[in-house]
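This part of the workshop introduces the protein records we will be handling. Getting from the letters to the tokens is the skill we practise here. The record below serves as our worked example for the rest of this section.

…
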Amino acid sequence: MSDTPLTRIGLLGGTFDPVHNCHLSIAGQAQRALALDRVIFIPSGAPPHKAGESLAPAHHRLSMVQRAVADLPDFVVSDVETNAPATSYTIDTVRTLRATVKGELWFIIGLDAFLEIAEWKSAEALLASMNFLVLSRPRVPFSRVASLTLFPPLPPSQLERLDEGQQRRLDHPIGPQTTITFLRTDPCPISSSAVRERIRKGEDVAGWLPLPVHSYIIEHNLYVPR
């Protein structure tokens, strides 16, 4: 990953188990909405919110993301979490990246995960450290953001306008240099859990995955019953 200074950088974390076409679509929509110079994909190592779940080994998930974005010059991959010796906390990841990545950081996150941010390690410090782009999720209303108390409240009427489709985007400054942007994104029906389930059943997933990722899964016999 290059440490060349960039103006606007998106950080997209996740287990990527496996990475699929909707992940790339989300990254593209975020890039266009915020005029990002680059989006950094950050596959997780041992994420605290997935404790107890069986994930594909981190090196496989990292390799799949690297193959998914190999021909997309504005998308790069960081191994900061997959190489971490212990549980991966977002605040620690951001502090590590700050040492080499220069620019205005935007953390890209789904609305469902953002609603749980109060439970994250050093949540207040995290919100003060960078901007957030919060993306819509199926059946999760933006109006639930009104219950969060970690930042200045939003008028419920503005959140309702997002839920009703009357506006696509809402920018909410929460500090002298930080903003939360809420964005309605195009719906996408693919999920990693659905991909894994189809593979376990022997069903076709070719249209759901970047071709190099599909080939990698076949090559390494991932997600099939043992």
Observations:
- The mean pLDDT is 93.
- The CA atoms of residues 102 and 163 lie 34 Å apart.
- The first helix runs from residue 21 to 34.
- Strands lie at 8-14, 38-43, 75-77, 104-110, 131-135, 169-173, 179-183.
